[in-house]
């Protein structure tokens, strides 16, 4: 109950504070490339329920036809998209998802159904027992995931066999010990990482 109240309060404050900067980012996205401001994609949430995540669009509108993994200096990323991704500003609209209850500020990052289908049954139950989040310990550990995938001979295999299992283990550890105090610690670490670039 305290975690949800904290999520709603911070999401509301965040959306209010970021309203004007958000409109400026939206305008930059529209001027940079044709297409919608927001990117929406089906993800798997708490209890296995599907929801559509909100992000600022950072790629061309037809980007998903070439696959769902973003590898290194992906040519599908727009000019403004590069700037947004470097600062993680594309994630800001997920405050909307937090407000409506699909997500939390802190929790395992929500995956697309095709990768959730690869979760071992025991880990799936644990990871999906909590709301997915905007940030979590695994996100901080793998903040340079795109570069790791770019260096791999087979990015898809690298993600499925190396990165995904490590993320799942970290997510399961978080879910088993989730608390408001721990969430605040993860948020502070996230802010520190973002400020350091």
TrEMBL record:
Under what name is this protein listed?
A: Sugar transferase
Broad enzyme group:
transferase
Q: Which residues form the Bacterial sugar transferase domain?
A: 3-195
Which InterPro entries does this one have? Bact_transf (IPR003362)
PANTHER family, per the entry: COLANIC BIOSYNTHESIS UDP-GLUCOSE LIPID CARRIER TRANSFERASE, QUINOVOSAMINEPHOSPHOTRANSFERAE-RELATED
Q: Which family does it belong to?
A: Belongs to the bacterial sugar transferase family.
EC number(s) stated in the UniProt entry for this protein? 2.7.8.-
What residue range is the signal peptide? none
What keywords were assigned to this record? Answer: Transferase
List the molecular function annotations (GO) for this entry: transferase activity
């Amino acid at each position: 109950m305290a975690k949800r109240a904290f999520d709603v309060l911070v999401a509301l404050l965040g959306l209010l504070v970021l309203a004007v900067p958000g409109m400026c980012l939206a305008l930059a996205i529209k001027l940079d490339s044709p297409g919608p401001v927001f990117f929406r994609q089906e993800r798997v949430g708490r209890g296995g329920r599907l929801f559509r995540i909100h992000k600022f669009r950072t790629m061309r509108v037809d980007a998903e036809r070439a696959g769902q993994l973003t590898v290194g200096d992906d040519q599908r990323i727009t000019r403004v998209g590069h700037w947004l991704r470097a600062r993680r500003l594309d994630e800001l609209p997920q405050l909307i998802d937090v407000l409506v209850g699909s997500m939390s500020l802190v929790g395992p990052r929500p995956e697309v159904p095709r990768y959730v289908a690869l979760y071992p049954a025991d880990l799936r139950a644990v990871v999906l027992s909590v709301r997915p989040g905007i940030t979590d310990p695994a996100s901080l550990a793998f903040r340079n995931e795109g570069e790791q995938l770019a260096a791999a001979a087979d990015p898809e295999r690298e993600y499925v066999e190396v990165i995904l299992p490590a993320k799942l283990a970290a997510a399961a550890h978080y879910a088993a010990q989730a608390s408001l105090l721990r969430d605040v610690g993860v948020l502070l670490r996230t802010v520190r990482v973002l400020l350091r670039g």
